[in-house]
Write a structure and sequence with these properties.
There is one protein chain. By secondary structure, the protein is an alpha/beta fold. The protein has four domains: 5-102 and 182-259, 3-Layer(aba) Sandwich (Rossmann fold); 111-181, no CATH class; 274-355 and 447-534, Rossmann fold, CATH 3.40.50.300; 366-442, no CATH class. The chain is globular. It starts with a helix and ends with a helix. 45% of the residues are buried.
Amino acid sequence: MSLTESEIKAVSQETMAPNAEQPEYVIEMLNITKIFPGIKANDNITLQLRRGEIHALLGENGAGKSTLMSVLFGLYQPEEGVIKKNGQVVKINNPNDANALNIGMVHQHFKLVECFSVLDNIILGVEPNKAGFLQKDEARKKVLALSEKYGLQVDPDAIVEDISVGMQQRTEILKMLYRDNEILIFDEPTAVLTPQEIQELMQIMKNLAAEGKSILFISHKLAEIMEVADRCTVLRKGKYIGTVNTADVTVQELSSMMVGRPVQLEVDKKPAQPGEVVLDVQNVTVRSHHHGGNAVSNVSFQVRRGEIVCLAGIEGNGQTQFIYGLTGLDKLASGKITLLGEDITHQSIRKRAKHMSHIPEDRHKHGLVLDFSVEENMILQRYWQPEFQKAGFIRFGEMRKYSDRLIEKFDVRSGQGSITKARSMSGGNQQKAIVAREMDRDHELLVAVQPTRGLDVGAIEFIHSEIVKERDEGKAVLLVSLELEEVMSLSDRILVMYEGEIVGEFDPKKVTVEELGLYMAGAKRDTPSAKEGK
């Protein structure tokens, strides 16, 4: 049973009411209002953080969570409201002011210099020096000590562009700890992590809180909030909905608070009715760009009309490189790819895209032109078609109508609608724009890589239903996901990749998460049928 609005307010007042036993609030954001062109991102929001607690901030994509944290970190200045630290009003004009107040932030999209080493990124801006000379040995000792203390294993000399996403995040956390920050802001910290890395991060957060550090944790993943957060503040469309003790509410109640309606947390789908083969992959091998070996080795399988086939595995086991080879972003070392009976192994990306839609893993690198408007991004794959151009000139009216329709259908929230710059949107709404563009295009194969990464439960529910609808309309769907819950609930067949090879094929109705985990970790492998695409 979901909480009513009046019950939410009652619980909120109870959890926020001061009493003699409560510790002092280390941070108070009182009546914060932040306005951007066309949108009130934060509308009179109050958030209070206790010392030593993990406080979750929950809300739909575009609800104003990242904006509120950016105000606390000094990236934005509020139109109204005040910020207090330890009961004293403070003015935070920029991130340097925030750091001086021991406030640190791990951003949703990491702020790292990719050509610098891990160590250089950690000390950037606070470099230890003596008589103007950089003292890296001293910094290295401190970084290694922090790494050991908090279980944040990193290679200080590794170049950031060569390390995994998980290690990049550890680098961001070490940046905060190196500066002796006491208030730690994590903006969607698990959106790009594997299940194993998520568990590691959850434990790190608990350890930090046990030491007396105070954590603000933005997440869409309700199970994570229930696991680590002491309290949770919910925002909806820029407004404050309530603050609750996580021990006193259910996942269903939190999801209803977030989206304002009951949410279907399980995928509702009929049994698959596979038809003819749409995608046929035979003995595909892709070279690694990081070492001399193969990232993908001799992979074969088929995807048929009316089924969702999932490539599952721990990140870094060849899924990304395989998708690059399939979509034309990388060349194959050997093997053959057939789409609708046509050999596309050496075709251009545009020719492949005629029958294939691709929701990419990295929305910034391969999904959007960030400085283009939403409407320009919506027709990136179609601008040359007669619907959108005449005699080589863009038909701007048709582009606007098309974009407006997709924005409404997929609930893409932005301050100025179709003319909004993609860069200014929240990560979740950027993702929804890509999903809208790719799923609306005419295609026979949908390649969906992490399609719900960074999305809230309401958006996930909608995207899952649209993917199932694609399947039921006779399209073939190849899903790549690191979310085991998504893998189990959405797939009709599961192929597990380990070290660039398919090591098992499973029916999600007949396999357990534990058994899948053994195959994903390389502890088990089997079935020639998996490699033959049977």
